[in-house]
Specification:
Order of helices and strands: H
Largest sheet: none
Helix content: 10-25%
Shape: globular
Distance between the termini: 6 Å
Radius of gyration: 13 Å
């Protein structure tokens, strides 16, 4: 996805509490499900494309 980058070994990501949907700071656009913590890659790509706008959808870096 454009405007994204892979993390290097040893990098960390701050994970917000499951129900935090507003900033400031890291937050979920949509809360994770109570019974599903893994994200379908196609659903993640679609959500990123939606969040980044229509000009980023379908491009590869």
């Amino acid at each position: 996805m454009p405007n994204t980058r892979a993390l290097t070994a040893g990098a960390s990501v701050t994970i917000p509490p499951p129900r935090r949907t507003d900033g400031p700071g890291p937050h979920w656009r949509m809360c994770p499900g109570d019974d599903r913590w893994l994200t379908d890659p196609d659903a993640l790509r679609a959500a990123l494309g939606d969040a980044l706008g229509p000009t980023s959808a379908g491009r590869t870096a």
